[in-house]
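Box 3.1 A note on notation
Throughout this textbook, protein chains are presented in two layers. The first layer is the amino acid sequence; the second is a token string describing backbone geometry. Keep the layers aligned when reading.
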Amino acid sequence: GGTQVHTAQEDYQSDDLHFTPTVRLGYQFNNSFQIRYNGRITTQSPPLGEMNEIELAIDSLQSRRGNPLLNPSTYFNNMLTVSYEKRPINANLQIVDNYYSRPVGESIFEENGKFIHMMENQKNLHQITTTAYVKTSIMNGNMNIYVRGGLNRLKSKGNTYNHTLNNWFISSGIDYTWKKWNPFWDIGTRRNSLSGETVSNAGQSTTLGLRYRLNNG
């Protein structure tokens, strides 16, 4: 497919045509083992509100300035999954590679004694997430126990900075099926993310729940 982006802001306007293909490949080695690949390219337009050529004061030392020269960014997504399933074991290894070319991110610089916040097209943002998952079923398949873990690696390269974040993560859970009832429990470590020069922290999570299935119809 393709995407055409038309941007018009006061005296500035641009037209961009982007190729946005999607690829899906897979191979089944036998009844238990298979490999799959998904790939796609998309484009993302800059926020129109950030393209206003105005400057607003945040406080006595900071201002936010618009940038009418923002351009669309390109996003490349690749996902490879290797899976194995033979009762009572279900396992897979997944590698997700996300690459953002010229993403829109915040820049902060000093000018005339003030700190200016302005969105700019940075160089790139590269994220690779490797995840391993194993689940086993016991008690005639009524109870499932699983563990999921891996490494989330992000590299943010801006016009004036270069940052890397490595985040190990793991989660585990258990669920049990009894007649129409399904109690479950899940616990996971914190997941951190990096965008530009900002690190976002997601706290540890614990989930305890109970499901009930109604009769069909």
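The mean pLDDT is 90. The first strand starts at residue 2 and ends at 9.
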